[in-house]
Design a protein that fits this description.
This is PD-(D/E)XK endonuclease-like domain-containing protein. It is a single chain. This protein is α/β, with parallel strands linked by helices. Among the domains are: 166 residues, P-loop containing nucleotide triphosphate hydrolases (Rossmann fold, 3-Layer(aba) Sandwich); 154 residues; 274 residues, Lambda Exonuclease, Chain A (Alpha-Beta Complex), CATH 3.90.320. The chain has 32 helices and 27 strands. The strands form eight sheets. It has a seven-stranded parallel β-sheet, with no helix packed on it. The radius of gyration is 39 Å and the shape is elongated.
Length: 897
């Protein structure tokens, strides 16, 4: 830590007792390093006092700071008392006041008079309107904006007065109060102040420093480098070049220090990486280049705090590391669950009869849970998924989840106060569970926030709605972070850019060095236009860019190895553009820069198809499978042998998922089950016109029975695409019944023999003693004009029902998945011919497609060969499945657009 060492050496020369000094720093992070330096110098006296400059300003102003929720509530109370038209709710007030308050603090810090700026804003807008016909409509946007600033010229001065009466002050008011007391403080104070490593000051901070210098009660140590200090074009030196012109720096008090470190030899590498998280994957390779494997002089600087978890994942090989940055509360699971809970409350206000499953599931997954709660949630999800319940009734939710420890949080709240009490009790309860430290901190933050909100709401009598409470919580979530504690003097340092102030590292690795991250650019959230900010010397994005430029160049000026990574992938708000600071050092510095392009390949980990060897265990399972073989097993094998292995041999199945829109599979089941109910009533009868007419009239009734069999709720089909699917299903069923009706009307004899006919133990010999047994279900068996028809229902269109088998293709004919419909019909024909009750009857097999219902049954045709030839090909397929020398190999489908 070269700069801190120089300061300590200088102070020890001045006085061996450092307790006479008050060291003022930009942040608290360097204090631990100063203590280490003093220990290395064998310093044995009292330590100096340490302040941040904000703490020193607060001490001078002697006001109670107020911010956040307490400030918003107090401000709204004042705003409401002024009876502005139109009157706003607290929720509407919170949409604009936090931004305005930051602007107001800027005005108080940087301008001579906040009222002058507010009046200028109002006058400026009024001047613009001189030549405009505003009309009498208050809803005209420009008129509304003009009225807004007119109200602010009254409201903000009144708010300041009310705060002063309480001896409270915002950040800007503290600066304003301190400004009037600085001269007296500098004159009357007997202490010595040392300002270390500052770059940009607010006017009040500058006044404080200069007054202390004038009274010889202060010293200033700057860390500047000639590379950016001497070059007028370099924005990094903008503020320092202004400071050196202070009259307080002269022959007797030099400006300290301007160094020449940036131009010393450096190894700079720029990495162009495809992807944000992909940047972290480069870290292990960079670490290999660092000779000091304790990484005691290495810093990883994350310009995007969201990369912290991914960065930690790749640092498992680092023994010691210290995280000196906060992780945003909003990115943690408990925070997401809290947001979901408030969203759920808003939804319950709109719909009091049911819960949308997507509003419930994330909450149950992300909230910490006990073992008992976990079991309740598991059973609840299983039942909802099994029954495909998209909208869960209040009654059902109570039935399935009433034993859940936090069930009350899922109920519509009686009041905001009661809901806060429930939350506080829940947080207190969660902290007794076995949860990790980060989640414990997350829950503790929220418990504290809920208590603060409840206590702050007590003095006020205005109504707080659930929507308003949600805004308050979200503001809290978005502004809070979890701070990590570690060993700051050992190992790798992980930090944000602002945490690097005053510190120097030999190896610097910086991630997300993108435009928009470094610098932030014109992303300032403000109501004050750029030109007015410039007119009143308020900071704009240009000054902010200069501050970021200084932090960047100062960090790397003393480094020997610099690794700059940026995300080159354009996605969302990220443009994939590298920071202009990288371009500057590429064009302006004398350092050779190595460029590396890291592509994040989207290729799968392996391009080889899955292959399963038929081990002894697999062969044993195949022997068991031979006892119960269905036609669908064989078609599954033709489609993909691995699917066959997983589902038919291992008996695994895909997890159920809730369908918001009826799937193709369940659409087929809906029609299938409905037809089953229709013809079950007609089974054993020679159909008459009246039978079919009555069935057509009762279609809705049969569909409702099918819906029950699917375990779907009737309301699932009441709107949207599902309503259309149900209507189409009804049309298909009607078309099939109408087709049968026309056959009967034409004088044909049609008798329903059986529906969903189950068959099993139908032997099929592969060799003399080796056999398999077929089993399955035939959708419909009827007798049409004396011919037995075996009918299979299909959702898909009919394909390849003309069989052409000869001696040249008999072995491999059914090894083609395009012929799986014919394969299934051949097996059904073989089975029916094997059943004694159907011996001697003429048999016809066919498919009735729901996609082409009006065409009726399309029969299997043998253009070449016979059923015996077909079964020879089926046997060959079964032998292939059973062959111990052949592996199950994944069939990778190629999709061509």
């Amino acid at each position: 830590m070269k700069f801190l060492n120089k300061i300590i050496d200088e102070l020890l020369v001045q006085n061996t007792d450092l307790s006479v000094f008050n060291i003022v720093l930009p942040g608290k992070r360097p204090i631990v390093f100063i203590r280490q330096i003093l220990e290395e110098n064998n310093y044995s006296g009292f330590l100096p006092n340490f302040f941040t400059i904000e703490e020193l300003i607060d001490r001078i102003a002697d006001k109670l700071p107020i911010q956040g929720i307490s400030l918003w509530l107090f401000s709204f109370d004042v705003y409401q008392s002024m009876n502005f038209i139109p009157r706003e709710s607290f929720a509407d007030f919170l949409k604009w006041f936090p931004t305005l308050q930051k602007d107001w603090d800027d005005i108080l810090k940087f301008s001579d008079s906040d009222e002058a700026v507010l009046q200028y804003m109002f006058d400026e807008e009024r001047i613009k309107e001189w030549a405009q016909d505003l009309g009498d409509d208050e809803d005209v946007p420009r008129r509304k904006f003009l009225n807004f600033w007119k109200n602010m010229t009254v409201f903000l001065p009144a708010l300041k007065k009310k705060l002063q009466e309480k001896n409270w002050a915002t950040s800007g008011m503290i600066h304003e109060e301190a400004k009037s007391k600085i001269e007296a403080f500098a004159k009357n104070n007997t202490e010595q102040f040392v300002f270390c490593g500052f770059n940009a000051f607010t006017p009040v901070e500058e006044k404080l420093v200069r007054n202390l210098l004038q009274w010889d009660k202060g010293q200033c140590f700057f860390q500047a480098d000639r590379y950016y200090f001497d070059d007028e074009r370099q924005e990094a030196g903008k503020f320092l070049r202004n400071h050196i012109t202070w009259k307080e720096f002269n022959d007797s008090r030099a400006f300290q220090w301007i160094e020449d470190d940036f131009n010393q030899p450096k190894n700079i590498k720029v990495y162009e990486v495809s992807g944000n998280v992909a940047q972290t994957k480069i870290l292990p390779e960079i670490f290999k280049e660092i000779t000091n494997k304790t990484f005691s002089n290495t810093a990883v600087v994350l310009l995007d705090e969201n990369l912290l978890p991914a960065s930690l994942d790749v640092m498992y090989g680092v023994d010691n590391l210290n995280i000196t940055m906060g992780f945003p509360l909003k990115n943690l699971s408990f925070s997401n669950a809290v947001k979901q809970l408030f969203y759920l409350q808003k939804q319950l206000e709109k719909n009091k009869s049911s819960y949308y499953y997507r509003d419930i599931f994330p909450i149950l997954e992300e909230l910490p849970k006990s073992a008992e709660d976990g079991e309740i949630i598991s059973q609840f999800k299983a039942k909802i998924e099994e029954r495909n319940i998209v909208y869960i009734s209040r009654k059902l939710l109570h039935e399935l989840l009433s034993e859940l420890s936090y069930f009350n949080l899922l109920q519509k709240a009686d009041s905001v106060s009661a809901y806060l009490d429930e939350f506080i009790a829940f947080c207190r309860q969660v902290k007794w569970l076995e949860i990790d430290d980060i989640q414990y901190e997350n829950v503790s933050h929220f418990e504290n926030a809920f208590r603060i909100i409840k206590n702050q709401l007590t003095p006020y009598d205005f109504e707080i709605k659930m929507e308003t409470l949600e805004i308050l919580i979200n503001q809290h979530i978005n502004s809070e972070s979890i701070d990590f504690q570690g060993e700051p003097l050992r190992g790798l340092q992980i930090m944000g850019l602002l945490e690097t102030r005053l510190l120097n590292f030999e190896n610097v690795i910086m991630l997300s060095v993108n435009e928009g991250k470094l610098p932030l650019g014109n992303s300032q959230n403000t109501y004050i236009p750029f030109d007015i900010r410039r007119f009143f010397d308020l900071h704009t994005f240009l000054e902010n860019d200069s501050i970021y430029a200084y932090h960047f160049y100062r960090l790397i000026q003393d480094s020997k190895n610099v690794h700059l990574l940026f995300n080159a992938l354009s996605s969302g708000v990220n443009t994939g553009e590298k920071s202009r600071f990288i371009t500057q050092i590429e064009m302006e510095s004398s350092h050779p820069i190595e460029h590396l392009i890291i592509e994040n390949s989207s290729e799968p980990i392996t391009t080889q198809p899955i292959e399963i060897t038929k081990t002894a265990v697999v062969l044993e399972k195949l022997e068991k499978w031979k006892e119960k073989v269905s036609a669908s097993h064989l078609t599954s094998y033709l489609y993909n042998p691995i699917d066959f292995y997983l589902s038919k041999i291992l008996n695994t199945s895909e997890t159920d998922e809730i369908e918001e829109e009826l799937s193709i599979k369940n659409y087929g089941n809906l029609v299938h089950y409905s037809l089953q109910e229709v013809y079950e009533v007609l089974k054993g009868k020679i159909l008459k016109e009246s039978d079919l007419n009555n069935s057509i009239k009762a279609i809705d009734q049969y569909i409702n029975i099918a819906i029950e069999k699917l375990k779907h709720q009737p309301e699932f089909y009441e709107k949207g695409m599902n309503y259309i699917h149900k209507a189409i299903a009804k049309k298909v069923i009607e078309s099939i019944l109408t087709y049968d009706l026309e056959l009967v009307k034409s004088g044909n004899a049609l008798e329903i023999i059986d529906i969903e006919r189950r068959f099993e133990n139908v032997d099929f010999y592969l060799a003399d003693k080796d056999k398999i047994s077929f089993f399955g279900f035939i959708d419909r068996i009827d007798r049409f004009n004396g011919t037995l028809r075996i009918i299979d229902y299909k959702t898909a269109k009919i394909k390849n029902l003309s069989v052409k088998i000869d001696e040249d293709n008999v072995e491999e004919y059914f090894l083609n998945s395009d012929r799986k419909q014919a394969l299934q019909l051949c097996i059904y024909q073989y089975v029916v011919q094997s059943l004694p009750e159907f011996w001697g009857l003429p048999v016809e097999t066919g498919i009735w497609s729901f996609a082409e219902a009006r065409k009726g049954v399309i029969s299997l045709q043998f253009d070449k060969g016979t059923i015996d030839d077909a079964m020879q090909s089926v046997k060959n397929l079964i032998l292939q499945i059973l062959d111990p020398d052949l592996t199950f190999i994944e069939n990778i489908k190629s999709y061509i657009n």
